[in-house]
Amino acid sequence: MAYGIQDPDDLASIITQMSYGGLCEVADALVQMNANAERDVKTIHGMADTLFDWAQATCEARREREREREAKKLAAAAVKAA
Fold first, then answer.
1. Cβ distance 8 to 16 under 8 Å?
2. Quick one: angle between helices 44-81 and 20-35, nearest 10?
3. Does any domain span residue 46?
4. Residue 3 lies in a domain
5. Per the domain annotation, does 23 fall within a domain?
6. 65, 64, 35: which is closest to 50 by C-alpha?
7. Range of the domain at 41
8. Contact 39, 49 (CB under 8 A)
9. Residue 27 to residue 55: CA distance in whole angstroms
10. What residue spans of the chain are helical by DSSP H?
11. Which one of 2, 24, 30, 60 has the fewest beta carbons within 10 angstroms of its own beta carbon?
């Protein structure tokens, strides 16, 4: 696992440092992801799939925001240079 997360204890430690509001955002996202899903979150595999899909989508959204910020910086620099 990335970012120093090696086992469930590490993940638990990070979760306990989150705000209640942040936890509610994650819980809401997980509920929404399963609203129309065909997986059973009452099973180990269904919940693991949901957690992975949420994490993957969240990381991709962050990368996209970073790409957009970088593109804006480059565009602003190009305007200044012109």
1. no
2. 110
3. yes
4. no
5. yes
6. 35
7. 8-81
8. yes
9. 12
10. 8-16, 20-35, 44-81
11. 2
Structural domains counted in the chain: 1
If one counts every other C-beta atom within 10 angstroms of the C-beta of residue 50, the result is: 19
Find how far residue 10's CA is from the centre of its chain: 17
C-alpha to C-alpha distance for 10 and 51, rounded to whole angstroms: 15
pTM comes to: 0.76
Predicted confidence (pLDDT) per residue in 22-78, tens digit: 999 999 999 998 888 888 889 999 999 999 999 999 999 999 999 999 999 999 998
| Structure confidence at residue 81 (pLDDT) | 86
Contacts of 40 (CB under 8 A, 6+ apart): 46
**What is the reported pLDDT for 23?**
96
